[in-house]
Amino acid sequence: MKTLLIIEMGVPPLSVHQKCGSHADWFTSALQPLAGKMSTPVCRPYLGETLQEPASLGGAIITGSWSMVTDQEGWSEYTAQWFRTAMQAQLPVFGVCYGHQLMAHALGGTIGDNPKGLEIGTRTITLDTTAQTDPLLSQHAQTFDAYLLHQQSVLEPPAGAVSLATSDLDRHQILRYAPNTYSVQFHPEFSEAVMRASIEDLARAPGHGAEHTPIAAQTPFSRQILLNFCDIVLTAHQN
């Protein structure tokens, strides 16, 4: 059985955690269709846990976070270094939101506050023409809805990365770094409940109105991209 490591990059705010659980819980739930096909252990670098050697894994997911990549916290930079090693080992890796930004940062990309503003709620993602021949996306809808919740973005991808999708506020919604390594700015693991709980928590922050687009009941095409990555893990000749 392949091992897909979930690298959890922090804990959500208390109100979100009490209602919906942790980042790792959301991914475990999203991956239920693959139950029995792969194991999904969790590593928490923010608690000082040591990441497994890439050669011992079938793949990895780097989750979102309420932290900021630009703070360059020790545990985050440790994970960035691990990712560079994983790239050299050709390990399939999938990053989400914070994970998306961290992977780009680890390879020399530029991360910062999105100059076009926050993306909060359900927004439309549009695939670029380059996605038509990509193994992760070639059978996918050209446009689809996704849950978003982020302040920072990948402002400039690292050299060699290919941008595969955009939104009206972010040019780099999906990046490909290698044939089996991708990251997305949106949240394929979110449920409607997680999205709503996150917005409710944000609305309590001083000076923040938590303006957002309407919340869809579900975002199945977004979720399918995560499952497509897992198919890559299951078919990769890794271990």
UniProtKB/TrEMBL annotation:
One of its GO terms (molecular function) is hydrolase activity. Its EC number is 3.4.-.-. It comes from the Bacteria. Signal peptide: none annotated. Keywords: Hydrolase. One of its GO terms (cellular component) is cytosol. It is an enzyme of class 3 (hydrolase). The keyword Hydrolase applies. Pfam families: GATase. Residues 71-195 form the Glutamine amidotransferase domain. The keyword Metal-binding does not apply. Coiled coil: none annotated. NCBIfam families: PRK09065.1. This is Gamma-glutamyl-L-1-hydroxyisopropylamide hydrolase. The gene is ipuF.
